Amino acid sequence: MGAMRKKRLNTRDMNNAFAAAAEALALFCRLRGIDAADLPAQEVDTLLDLAFEEAARLAAERSEARRPG
Questions:
Q1: Cβ 38 vs Cβ 12: under 8 Å
Q2: Are 27 and 47 in contact (CB under 8 A)?
Q3: Mapping DSSP to helix (H, G, I), strand (E, B) and coil, where does residue 34 land?
Q4: What angle do CA 54, 27, 49 make, to 5 degrees?
Q5: Among 18, 29, 44, 64, which residue has the least CB neighbours within 10 Å?
Q6: Is residue 9 very low, low, confident or very high in pLDDT (cuts 50, 70, 90)?
Q7: Where do runs of H (alpha helix) occur along the chain?
Q8: What is the pLDDT of residues 18-61, one digit of tens each?
Q9: Interhelix angle for 11-32 vs 41-66, to 10°?
């Protein structure tokens, strides 16, 4: 895969990122048997960062797919 350019997330992508972060956090907590309120803020920030990176990657892929040629 080529180098991805950083892209500002539009509202739809932001909503997708928040949804992905919530799902990831819920799954992580369920698998670990912990309450999300017990997680250190740094771990929550890491999960949010990963979700936003994934949303940006998916947005870039959609943008590339729409380009002619």
A1: no
A2: no
A3: coil
A4: 30
A5: 64
A6: low
A7: 11-32, 41-66
A8: 787 788 788 888 998 988 888 889 988 887 787 778 777 887 88
A9: 140
- The residue ranking higher by pLDDT, 5 or 12, is 12
Are the C-beta atoms of residues 9 and 55 closer than 8 Å to each other? yes
For 35, phi and psi rounded to 5 degrees?
A: -90, 135
The amino acid present at 34, given as its one-letter code, is: I
| CA 23 remoteness from chain centre | 10
Q: Report yes or no: 24 and 48 within 8 Å, Cβ to Cβ.
A: no
| Model pTM above 0.70 | no
- For the chain, the straight-line distance linking the first and the last C-alpha, in angstroms and rounded, comes to 17
